[in-house]
Amino acid sequence: MNKEWKVFLSAIQFLTRIRVPAGIDHRAEYLRQAPKYFPVVGWIVGAASALFFLLFTRYISTDAGILASMVTSLLVTGALHEDGFADVCDGFGGGWTKEKILQIMKDSRVGAFGVIGLIMLFGSKYLLLKELPAFLPEAGQTSRLIFYHYRYFILALIAAHSVSRLMAVLVMQAGTYVSDPSQSKSISMTSQRLSAGSIGLAILFALAPFALLPWPYLLTVIPALYVTSALYQYFYRWIGGYTGDCLGAVQQVTEIVIYLGFVVVWRYF
Protein backbone atom coordinates (compact mmCIF):
# COMPACT_ATOMS: atom_id res chain seq x y z
CA MET A 1 0.00 0.00 0.00
CA ASN A 2 2.86 2.37 0.73
CA LYS A 3 4.26 1.79 -2.75
CA GLU A 4 0.87 2.33 -4.39
CA TRP A 5 0.49 5.57 -2.45
CA LYS A 6 3.82 6.77 -3.84
CA VAL A 7 2.78 5.73 -7.35
CA PHE A 8 -0.44 7.73 -6.95
CA LEU A 9 1.45 10.80 -5.71
CA SER A 10 3.80 10.48 -8.67
CA ALA A 11 0.77 10.62 -10.97
CA ILE A 12 -0.48 13.75 -9.20
CA GLN A 13 2.93 15.40 -9.39
CA PHE A 14 3.29 14.56 -13.09
CA LEU A 15 -0.13 15.81 -14.22
CA THR A 16 -0.86 18.69 -11.85
CA ARG A 17 0.64 21.56 -9.87
CA ILE A 18 -0.68 20.12 -6.61
CA ARG A 19 2.11 19.91 -4.05
CA VAL A 20 2.92 16.46 -2.73
CA PRO A 21 4.93 15.60 0.41
CA ALA A 22 8.57 16.59 0.01
CA GLY A 23 9.78 13.26 1.37
CA ILE A 24 8.27 11.23 -1.48
CA ASP A 25 10.99 9.61 -3.58
CA HIS A 26 9.68 9.70 -7.14
CA ARG A 27 11.51 6.77 -8.66
CA ALA A 28 11.30 5.69 -12.28
CA GLU A 29 9.45 2.53 -11.23
CA TYR A 30 6.72 4.68 -9.67
CA LEU A 31 6.38 6.76 -12.82
CA ARG A 32 6.07 3.60 -14.93
CA GLN A 33 3.02 2.58 -12.92
CA ALA A 34 1.58 6.10 -12.51
CA PRO A 35 -0.66 6.09 -15.65
CA LYS A 36 -3.10 3.67 -14.02
CA TYR A 37 -3.99 6.50 -11.63
CA PHE A 38 -4.41 9.16 -14.34
CA PRO A 39 -8.22 8.79 -14.27
CA VAL A 40 -8.15 9.36 -10.49
CA VAL A 41 -6.21 12.57 -11.10
CA GLY A 42 -9.08 13.41 -13.45
CA TRP A 43 -11.47 13.02 -10.49
CA ILE A 44 -9.43 15.59 -8.58
CA VAL A 45 -9.28 18.10 -11.43
CA GLY A 46 -12.98 17.64 -12.22
CA ALA A 47 -14.00 17.95 -8.57
CA ALA A 48 -11.96 21.13 -8.11
CA SER A 49 -13.48 22.61 -11.27
CA ALA A 50 -16.98 21.67 -10.09
CA LEU A 51 -16.38 23.22 -6.67
CA PHE A 52 -15.49 26.61 -8.11
CA PHE A 53 -18.35 26.36 -10.60
CA LEU A 54 -20.77 25.93 -7.69
CA LEU A 55 -19.19 28.76 -5.70
CA PHE A 56 -19.34 31.32 -8.51
CA THR A 57 -22.73 30.13 -9.71
CA ARG A 58 -24.18 30.54 -6.24
CA TYR A 59 -22.91 34.07 -5.67
CA ILE A 60 -22.45 35.53 -9.18
CA SER A 61 -23.89 33.71 -12.21
CA THR A 62 -23.78 30.45 -14.14
CA ASP A 63 -21.58 32.02 -16.83
CA ALA A 64 -19.10 33.14 -14.18
CA GLY A 65 -19.23 29.64 -12.70
CA ILE A 66 -18.36 28.04 -16.03
CA LEU A 67 -15.47 30.44 -16.54
CA ALA A 68 -14.27 29.75 -12.99
CA SER A 69 -14.36 26.00 -13.58
CA MET A 70 -12.25 26.36 -16.73
CA VAL A 71 -9.71 28.61 -15.02
CA THR A 72 -9.53 26.20 -12.08
CA SER A 73 -8.70 23.32 -14.41
CA LEU A 74 -5.92 25.38 -15.98
CA LEU A 75 -4.46 26.36 -12.63
CA VAL A 76 -4.58 22.84 -11.18
CA THR A 77 -2.88 21.26 -14.20
CA GLY A 78 -0.62 24.16 -15.13
CA ALA A 79 -2.22 24.10 -18.63
CA LEU A 80 -0.17 20.95 -19.30
CA HIS A 81 -2.67 19.40 -21.72
CA GLU A 82 -3.63 22.68 -23.38
CA ASP A 83 0.04 23.35 -24.09
CA GLY A 84 0.31 19.95 -25.74
CA PHE A 85 -2.80 20.63 -27.81
CA ALA A 86 -1.38 23.95 -29.02
CA ASP A 87 1.94 22.31 -29.95
CA VAL A 88 0.08 19.62 -31.91
CA CYS A 89 -1.87 22.29 -33.80
CA ASP A 90 1.36 24.09 -34.67
CA GLY A 91 3.30 20.94 -35.52
CA PHE A 92 0.75 19.18 -37.69
CA GLY A 93 -0.55 22.44 -39.12
CA GLY A 94 2.82 23.77 -40.18
CA GLY A 95 4.92 20.65 -40.78
CA TRP A 96 4.87 18.35 -43.79
CA THR A 97 7.46 15.79 -42.72
CA LYS A 98 7.97 13.84 -39.51
CA GLU A 99 11.17 15.71 -38.74
CA LYS A 100 9.60 19.13 -39.30
CA ILE A 101 6.50 18.30 -37.25
CA LEU A 102 8.58 17.11 -34.30
CA GLN A 103 10.85 20.14 -34.59
CA ILE A 104 7.91 22.57 -34.51
CA MET A 105 6.32 20.80 -31.55
CA LYS A 106 9.55 21.14 -29.55
CA ASP A 107 9.56 24.92 -30.12
CA SER A 108 8.37 26.69 -26.97
CA ARG A 109 6.79 29.48 -29.01
CA VAL A 110 3.11 29.28 -29.97
CA GLY A 111 2.32 29.89 -33.63
CA ALA A 112 -0.82 30.88 -35.52
CA PHE A 113 -2.19 27.34 -35.67
CA GLY A 114 -1.72 26.94 -31.93
CA VAL A 115 -3.45 30.23 -31.13
CA ILE A 116 -6.37 29.44 -33.44
CA GLY A 117 -6.62 25.95 -31.99
CA LEU A 118 -6.73 27.24 -28.41
CA ILE A 119 -9.40 29.80 -29.28
CA MET A 120 -11.54 27.06 -30.82
CA LEU A 121 -10.81 24.73 -27.90
CA PHE A 122 -11.77 27.16 -25.14
CA GLY A 123 -14.73 28.47 -27.11
CA SER A 124 -16.08 24.96 -27.67
CA LYS A 125 -15.54 23.99 -24.06
CA TYR A 126 -17.29 27.10 -22.75
CA LEU A 127 -20.31 26.74 -25.05
CA LEU A 128 -20.78 23.05 -24.25
CA LEU A 129 -20.43 23.61 -20.52
CA LYS A 130 -22.96 26.42 -20.81
CA GLU A 131 -25.42 23.95 -22.36
CA LEU A 132 -25.10 21.31 -19.65
CA PRO A 133 -26.93 23.04 -16.75
CA ALA A 134 -29.91 23.73 -19.04
CA PHE A 135 -30.66 20.00 -19.17
CA LEU A 136 -30.71 19.38 -15.45
CA PRO A 137 -33.75 17.38 -14.32
CA GLU A 138 -34.60 20.20 -11.93
CA ALA A 139 -33.93 23.02 -14.40
CA GLY A 140 -35.98 26.07 -13.55
CA GLN A 141 -36.47 25.06 -9.94
CA THR A 142 -34.73 26.69 -7.01
CA SER A 143 -32.94 24.61 -4.43
CA ARG A 144 -30.78 25.35 -1.44
CA LEU A 145 -29.02 22.03 -1.94
CA ILE A 146 -26.78 23.28 -4.72
CA PHE A 147 -24.63 20.13 -4.77
CA TYR A 148 -27.72 18.01 -5.30
CA HIS A 149 -29.24 20.41 -7.81
CA TYR A 150 -26.12 20.32 -10.00
CA ARG A 151 -25.19 16.70 -9.30
CA TYR A 152 -25.34 15.64 -12.98
CA PHE A 153 -23.25 18.62 -14.02
CA ILE A 154 -20.66 17.81 -11.34
CA LEU A 155 -20.54 14.17 -12.42
CA ALA A 156 -20.23 15.27 -16.06
CA LEU A 157 -17.14 17.32 -15.22
CA ILE A 158 -15.57 14.51 -13.20
CA ALA A 159 -16.39 11.88 -15.85
CA ALA A 160 -15.02 14.02 -18.70
CA HIS A 161 -11.74 14.73 -16.93
CA SER A 162 -11.38 11.10 -15.89
CA VAL A 163 -12.31 9.38 -19.17
CA SER A 164 -10.25 11.80 -21.27
CA ARG A 165 -7.16 10.94 -19.25
CA LEU A 166 -7.93 7.25 -19.71
CA MET A 167 -7.91 7.84 -23.48
CA ALA A 168 -4.37 9.20 -23.22
CA VAL A 169 -3.37 6.11 -21.23
CA LEU A 170 -4.83 3.83 -23.90
CA VAL A 171 -2.79 5.61 -26.58
CA MET A 172 0.31 5.06 -24.46
CA GLN A 173 -0.42 1.34 -24.28
CA ALA A 174 -1.22 0.88 -27.96
CA GLY A 175 1.24 3.23 -29.60
CA THR A 176 4.93 3.96 -30.00
CA TYR A 177 6.63 6.94 -28.42
CA VAL A 178 8.60 8.82 -31.09
CA SER A 179 10.24 11.79 -29.32
CA ASP A 180 13.90 11.89 -28.36
CA PRO A 181 14.02 9.86 -25.09
CA SER A 182 16.89 11.94 -23.73
CA GLN A 183 14.73 15.08 -23.86
CA SER A 184 11.52 13.55 -22.54
CA LYS A 185 10.41 13.79 -18.91
CA SER A 186 7.89 11.00 -19.55
CA ILE A 187 10.39 8.41 -20.79
CA SER A 188 9.87 6.30 -17.66
CA MET A 189 6.17 6.01 -18.48
CA THR A 190 6.53 5.37 -22.18
CA SER A 191 9.39 2.87 -22.03
CA GLN A 192 7.25 0.12 -20.52
CA ARG A 193 3.56 -0.69 -20.92
CA LEU A 194 1.20 -1.33 -18.03
CA SER A 195 0.08 -4.83 -17.12
CA ALA A 196 -3.42 -6.00 -18.08
CA GLY A 197 -4.46 -5.67 -14.43
CA SER A 198 -3.27 -2.06 -14.24
CA ILE A 199 -5.07 -1.17 -17.47
CA GLY A 200 -8.23 -2.77 -16.11
CA LEU A 201 -7.88 -0.74 -12.91
CA ALA A 202 -7.50 2.48 -14.90
CA ILE A 203 -10.65 1.64 -16.87
CA LEU A 204 -12.58 1.01 -13.65
CA PHE A 205 -11.41 4.33 -12.21
CA ALA A 206 -12.47 6.17 -15.38
CA LEU A 207 -15.92 4.59 -15.52
CA ALA A 208 -16.65 4.89 -11.78
CA PRO A 209 -18.44 8.29 -12.05
CA PHE A 210 -20.99 6.74 -14.42
CA ALA A 211 -22.15 4.45 -11.62
CA LEU A 212 -23.93 7.48 -10.16
CA LEU A 213 -25.59 8.41 -13.46
CA PRO A 214 -28.40 6.83 -15.51
CA TRP A 215 -26.96 4.25 -17.90
CA PRO A 216 -27.41 6.22 -21.19
CA TYR A 217 -24.63 8.59 -20.15
CA LEU A 218 -22.19 5.71 -20.46
CA LEU A 219 -22.74 5.92 -24.22
CA THR A 220 -20.60 9.05 -24.23
CA VAL A 221 -17.52 6.85 -23.90
CA ILE A 222 -18.09 5.36 -27.37
CA PRO A 223 -17.44 8.54 -29.39
CA ALA A 224 -14.48 9.30 -27.11
CA LEU A 225 -12.96 5.92 -28.02
CA TYR A 226 -13.62 6.53 -31.71
CA VAL A 227 -12.03 9.99 -31.67
CA THR A 228 -9.04 8.63 -29.74
CA SER A 229 -8.55 5.93 -32.36
CA ALA A 230 -8.89 8.46 -35.19
CA LEU A 231 -6.39 10.83 -33.60
CA TYR A 232 -3.85 8.10 -33.02
CA GLN A 233 -4.17 6.86 -36.60
CA TYR A 234 -3.59 10.41 -37.77
CA PHE A 235 -0.52 10.77 -35.56
CA TYR A 236 0.81 7.39 -36.68
CA ARG A 237 0.37 8.26 -40.35
CA TRP A 238 2.42 11.44 -40.01
CA ILE A 239 5.03 10.71 -37.33
CA GLY A 240 4.83 6.96 -36.73
CA GLY A 241 3.49 7.13 -33.18
CA TYR A 242 2.80 9.71 -30.50
CA THR A 243 4.53 12.29 -28.33
CA GLY A 244 3.65 13.82 -24.97
CA ASP A 245 2.03 16.72 -26.85
CA CYS A 246 -0.13 14.24 -28.73
CA LEU A 247 -1.34 12.81 -25.42
CA GLY A 248 -2.30 16.30 -24.27
CA ALA A 249 -4.24 16.82 -27.49
CA VAL A 250 -6.03 13.50 -27.05
CA GLN A 251 -7.05 14.49 -23.50
CA GLN A 252 -8.37 17.89 -24.51
CA VAL A 253 -10.27 16.76 -27.59
CA THR A 254 -11.90 13.77 -25.88
CA GLU A 255 -12.87 15.92 -22.89
CA ILE A 256 -14.87 18.08 -25.29
CA VAL A 257 -16.31 14.98 -26.97
CA ILE A 258 -17.56 13.77 -23.56
CA TYR A 259 -19.24 17.13 -22.91
CA LEU A 260 -20.86 17.00 -26.33
CA GLY A 261 -22.00 13.45 -25.61
CA PHE A 262 -23.64 14.53 -22.37
CA VAL A 263 -25.54 17.30 -24.16
CA VAL A 264 -26.78 14.84 -26.80
CA VAL A 265 -27.83 12.27 -24.20
CA TRP A 266 -29.62 14.90 -22.11
CA ARG A 267 -31.44 16.21 -25.17
CA TYR A 268 -32.47 12.97 -26.87
CA PHE A 269 -32.50 10.16 -24.25
TrEMBL record:
Kindly state which keywords UniProt assigns to this record, in alphabetical order: Cell membrane, Cobalamin biosynthesis, Magnesium, Membrane, Transferase, Transmembrane, Transmembrane helix
**Swiss-Prot/TrEMBL cofactor(s):** Mg(2+)
* Residue ranges of the TM segments: 37-56, 110-129, 149-172, 193-211, 217-235, 247-268
GO molecular function annotations of the record: adenosylcobinamide-GDP ribazoletransferase activity; cobalamin 5'-phosphate synthase activity
One Gene Ontology CC term in the entry = plasma membrane
Q: Which GO terms describe its biological process?
A: cobalamin biosynthetic process
What InterPro entries does the entry give? CobS (IPR003805)
The places in or outside the cell where this protein is found are: Cell membrane
> E.C. number, please?
2.7.8.26
Q: How does it sit in the membrane?
A: Multi-pass membrane protein
> Which reaction does this enzyme catalyse, per its entry?
alpha-ribazole 5'-phosphate + adenosylcob(III)inamide-GDP = adenosylcob(III)alamin 5'-phosphate + GMP + H(+); alpha-ribazole + adenosylcob(III)inamide-GDP = adenosylcob(III)alamin + GMP + H(+)
Q: Does the keyword Cell membrane apply?
A: yes
Q: What pathway does the annotation place this protein in?
A: Cofactor biosynthesis; adenosylcobalamin biosynthesis; adenosylcobalamin from cob(II)yrinate a,c-diamide: step 7/7
Q: Which family does it belong to?
A: Belongs to the CobS family.
Task: Give the function comment from the record.
Answer: Joins adenosylcobinamide-GDP and alpha-ribazole to generate adenosylcobalamin (Ado-cobalamin). Also synthesizes adenosylcobalamin 5'-phosphate from adenosylcobinamide-GDP and alpha-ribazole 5'-phosphate.
The cross-references to HAMAP family, in alphabetical order and at most eight, read:
CobS
- Identification of the protein by name: Adenosylcobinamide-GDP ribazoletransferase
